[in-house]
Structures are given as C-alpha cells and as structure tokens.
Amino acid sequence: MKKKGKMFTGWIIIGFALLFYIAVTWEDLINGDFLTKGNVFMLVIILAGIFRLFTWRNDEKAKQDELGKYIVNKSSVIGYRILTTLLFFLWITDRFLYNHSNEFGNLFLFLGFCISIILLPIIQLFISRNYH
C-alpha cells in the first residue's frame, strides 16, 4: 500500500475515534456528567494518535531507520525529563495547596514522582548489561 493510502487509513481510524468520543461525550453531557475521567483519557489517546500520525505518517519503516531511532531515543529522554519535572511540581503544588496533614502530601503522586526518578537508570542498567 502506498504512503498516502496508509495515511488515509490512519485518518479514517482517527475520524472514527473522534466520532465515538463525540458520541460518548454527548451522552455524558445529556446525563449531566460532562468532564469525566473516561472522556479526558479518551481525548488524550486520540490526541496521541494524531501526533503519531503526523510524526510517522503511518510508516513503520521510518521509525526503524537510523534517523527514526534517533528521533525516538531523543524524544523519549526529553519526555522522561519533562514528565519527572511535571510530577515534581504537581507533587509540590498538591503538598502545599491541598494536603497539609501528612509529610508526603498525595502519596500516589509522590510514589509516581519517585518511580519516575529511578525508572530511566534502571532501564539503562538492564540495557547496558546486554552490551557488556
């Protein structure tokens, strides 16, 4: 299948996902629940699919070449650092604004922040063992 055909197929899938999202959100709006966790999560998944479609144009070979691997590697490290920083600021904000009762603030947010700090070094350790 040609590149344009694959891209068109990707847009059809995204279009159906958007229609499904609109239908579910409309039904929730009628029932009085507009902004539910499920609606937000579906929107995030659809937006991620759109960004992937714009980035790779539904071409799996582009991700496997040298430039594609470099882009995936660089974006993963940048995304990891941004996520760790955002988790830290969210934890600090939650700690000072909403939860003064205990030492940690929101425990799950704190644990997520701690896991995000040690995740990359652990993965790098296991990957580096393959080469040593």
Account of the protein in words:
- With 132 residues, the protein is an all-alpha fold.
- It folds into 2 domains: 1-62; 65-132.
- It is built from 5 helices and no strands.
- The chain has helices spanning 3-30, 37-56, 60-64, 66-97, 107-129.
- Helix 1 (3-30) runs antiparallel to helix 2 (37-56).
- The model has no long low-confidence stretch (mean pLDDT 82).
Features of this protein?
single chain; 132 residues; mainly alpha; 2 domains; 5 helices; membrane; transmembrane helix; transmembrane; DUF2178_TM
Task: Detail the topology: elements first, then pairings.
Layout: H1 3-30, H2 37-56, H3 60-64, H4 66-97, H5 107-129
Helix pairs in contact: 1-2, 4-5
Fraction in helix: over 70%
Outline type: flat
What is the residue-mean pLDDT, rounded to a whole number? 82
| Count of domain modules | 2
* Uncertain spans: none
The helix/strand series, from N terminus to C terminus, equals HHHHH
What's the total helix number?
5
> Radius of gyration from the CA trace?
20 Å
Distance between the termini: 41 Å
Largest sheet: none
SSE-based structural type: mainly alpha
